[in-house]
Amino acid sequence: MRTASILLGILGLLGLFAGFLPLLGWVNWFATLPPALLGLLLGVLARDRGATTFNAVVIGLAALRLLLGGGFF
User: Fold this and answer.
1) Are 33 and 59 in contact (CB under 8 A)?
2) Which UniProt keywords apply (predicted)?
């Protein structure tokens, strides 16, 4: 479960990079948050602090980007 959690976090991180581009903030709703949330859940279930922290950071950055962009842009 640890490996799946980290892979989902990396997938979310790739979506986060795309979501930082102007006018692509909506990508965070579909390509960043769902995999990172699932990775966070798997990290908690696997009791792996590194994977949990990594996914929490990705979720936090995506939430910050959505907050600064008004939720969509």
Assistant:
1) yes
2) Membrane, Transmembrane, Transmembrane helix
